[in-house]
Write a structure and sequence with these properties.
Blueprint: E1 5-6, E2 23-27, E3 37-40, E4 43-49, E5 52-57, E6 61-66, E7 73-83, E8 90-95, E9 102-106, E10 112-120, E11 128-133, E12 142-154, E13 158-159, E14 173-174, E15 177-178, H1 182-191, E16 193-197, H2 211-214, H3 219-222, H4 242-252, E17 256-262, E18 267-268, E19 278-279, H5 280-284, H6 288-299, E20 302-308, H7 339-359, E21 366-370, H8 380-387, H9 418-425, E22 430-431, E23 442-445, E24 459-464, H10 484-495, E25 499-505, H11 515-530, E26 539-540, E27 550-555, E28 558-563, E29 572-573, E30 583-588, E31 597-600, E32 603-606, E33 617-623
Parallel strand pairs: 16-17, 16-25, 17-20, 18-19, 20-21, 21-22, 23-24, 24-25
Antiparallel strand pairs: 1-13, 2-12, 3-6, 4-5, 5-12, 6-11, 7-10, 7-12, 8-9, 8-11, 14-15, 26-27, 27-28, 28-33, 29-32, 30-33, 31-32
Helix pairs in contact: 4-6, 7-9
Length: 628
């Protein structure tokens, strides 16, 4: 009887203190690269780590360290990562462990610490830690520091004897607000696929959405991009027709869209009554967000907004107390007492504009917060007391918002915090955690691999089809875009892990999505439409995926097997079904070709599946009863 092994997420802690907690790897990079080798690109040791030196990577680098791990063990990876700007993507992953691989995908401009548990089965040969800086940005870097891999205890593999139970989503309450219940976020898990759109003044220079900060351009100089005096860099939006964007989204199979209503540069694509606001209504006499929302609704797509909390137009962002300016800023700001009031005004503008976004455009379905940190350091949670991210504002907060821009709870009369306002006016909206509140769904950002088990809760993978997020000239060159097979593979890796996929485009200064990007998206859409039966309304599982080999998703009485390009056998033995479950038929979802199968009890063997090397093959199984 051929039964494959399923990895339990639970684990058993050893009772022997000398073994538990023992570090297999510890790297602080005080003097050397600690055994890391550059499989591609370049690595070095440089100042700027958490406590001294750190491992520094140039764009296109893959740093690899071979690991010696004990079979039958649970380990924990702790690692700190940082990019030079939020436009860069990097990832860390444990590979070589098959179904027990893990991945961390990351795109933030300050040190962020991660902690991930992983299991090691009976074979640990080939295990390695990889740190990948996936960027074509040129003169930029990323860093890794304070790496530790420690053994926590024993890991037991068990043989499944049927369909495993589904892990329920945990509904948490944080800062006075509960996460949305399952019925209010189900549309994301059903729809799976969305279009992310980064568009703003930065499209003019064509060097990405972090252009202002990367180059230390003063607010006065930067604002010229909104006026004809900037010449060929003028953000004129003259060809902006969001109906064309939505037409493309529909052709691809997108079910929702998310537009950057305002990025960190402080330029808003909507009308705002705040006295210091800098908006498209000021410069173009157009509310571009309204045009976008109208087009979304006309196309039948869910409406999503991206909104940053921070604003580089305010020097106080780098010095919220007026006593401790982050001198590692490219604008030349130093500590000034008046920065505290300037930071308060930045916060006040945020409150004004969040209310405007939540009240002027009808029902909003999806809210992607960004930039919750302060002074380019710390975490979103660290900055939450400044922003007052939860249900209510604190009467003792040092940065009080003028009552004119506050909103109040109708029952208690208390002034509402950011998420309090959001939930008051958009009770059904789902948000990510980057405001400092826990979030209804979480994010895995960047083009790094998606590895490991089926995700708990709702997770959205956001990735750009081009280099960076906002428009850059490389987006005009198809050879600089993410290859089609890579886009498909990332999406499939999300599907079998019960994740959503938010795929980014960066229109140019006129409002046109580059032709090369549009063509690659349409190619992806051809595959999506050919396999849509195995996408919409499915859930990842019922069994765990094996990285690079295969994974599963299901709906009702259908199981879809995704062979991920590295599976080479012509036969496949399914994991055990429940008693009484029968496979009625098996077929290739794209070609319709019947797949021979034999069933004995709970066990099913497929033959002649002909998996396509380095591409995806999807096999559909129809059962006599629902999976769950």
């Amino acid at each position: 009887m051929d039964r494959r092994i399923y990895s339990l997420l639970s684990f058993f802690i050893l009772s022997i203190p000398v073994v538990c907690g023992q570090s297999a790897v510890r790297c602080s990079f005080d003097s050397d690269t600690e055994g890391f080798k550059a499989a591609a690109g370049n690595i070095s040791i440089a100042q700027g780590g958490l406590n001294g030196n750190a491992l520094r990577l140039t764009p296109g680098t893959r740093a690899v360290k071979v690991l010696k791990l004990q079979p039958g063990s649970v380990y924990e990876l702790n690692i700190a990562l940082r990019t030079e700007s939020g436009a860069d993507n990097m990832s860390a992953q444990i590979s070589g462990l098959g179904k027990n691989n893990i991945s961390i995908s990351f795109a933030k401009a300050d040190w962020t610490q991660f902690s991930e548990k992983f299991n090691v089965g009976n074979d640990s040969e080939g295990a390695k830690l990889e740190i990948i800086f996936d960027s074509n940005a040129g003169n930029t870097h990323s860093w890794a520091d304070e790496i530790e891999i420690k053994r926590l205890g024993d890991y037991a593999e068990v043989v499944l004897d049927g369909i495993p139970p589904r892990e329920p989503r945990e509904i948490k309450t944080d800062l006075g607000i509960a996460m949305q219940p399952d019925d209010k976020i189900q549309w994301m898990l059903d729809g799976k696929l969305g279009m992310f759109i980064h568009w703003g003044l930065y499209a003019g220079p064509g060097q990405g959405e972090w252009y202002m900060e990367n180059n230390g351009i003063s607010p006065d100089e930067y604002r010229k991009l909104a006026y004809p005096e900037s010449g060929d860099e003028y953000f004129d939006a003259k060809d902006f027709d969001p109906r064309k964007w939505m037409e493309l989204a529909k052709k691809i199979g997108m079910r929702y869209c998310c537009l950057t209503t305002q990025h960190h540069d402080g330029y808003a694509l909507f009308e705002s009554k705040y006295m210091n606001a800098f908006t498209s209504k000021n410069t173009l006499n157009r509310d571009l967000v309204k045009e976008y929302v109208d087009a979304c609704r006309e196309a039948g797509l869910k409406v999503g907004f991206y909104k940053t909390l921070i604003n580089w137009r305010y020097p106080g962002y780098f010095d919220v107390t007026g006593k401790d300016c982050n001198l590692d800023n490219r604008f030349g700001y130093v500590t000034e007492e008046w920065h505290k009031e300037n930071a308060r005004l930045m916060k006040e503008e945020l409150y004004c504009q969040v209310k405007e976004l939540m009240t002027k455009y009808g029902k909003i379905d999806h809210l992607f917060w960004d930039g919750g940190w302060l002074a380019q350091k710390g975490t979103d949670a660290d900055a939450a007391p400044f922003w007052e991210s939860g249900l209510y504002m604190d009467p003792d907060n040092e940065w009080q918002v003028n009552p004119y821009f506050q909103d109040f709870d109708s029952v208690t009369g208390k002034p509402l915090g950011i998420m309090g306002m959001v939930r008051k006016y958009q009770p059904d909206i789902v948000t990510n955690p980057r405001s400092g509140w826990v979030g209804d769904f979480t994010c895995e950002e960047g083009s790094g691999d998606v590895k490991g088990p089926i995700r708990s809760g709702v997770v959205e993978k956001c990735v750009s089809i081009g280099s960076g997020w906002g428009y850059n000239k490389q987006m005009e060159d198809s050879t600089k875009l993410m290859p089609l097979n890579r886009v498909k593979r990332l999406f499939a890796d999300c599907l079998v892990r019960n994740m959503c996929f938010l795929l980014n485009v960066g229109p140019d200064r006129h409002g046109v999505i580059p032709g090369a990007v549009e063509q690659r998206m349409l190619q992806f859409g051809d595959w999506v439409n050919a396999t849509k039966e195995a996408i919409y309304g499915t859930r990842g599982g019922p069994w765990q995926p094996v990285d690079g080999q295969y994974g599963f998703c299901y709906r009702d009485n259908m199981i879809y097997i995704y062979f991920l390009g590295e599976y080479s056998d012509n036969d496949f033995t399914l994991l055990p079904l429940d008693k009484g479950m029968k496979v009625r038929k098996a077929y290739n979802l794209v070609t319709g070709e019947k797949i021979p199968h034999k069933q004995k009890g709970k066990n099913v063997k497929l033959s002649n599946i002909n998996p396509i090397k380095d591409d995806l093959t999807v096999i559909a199984l129809e059962l006599n009863t629902s999976i769950r």
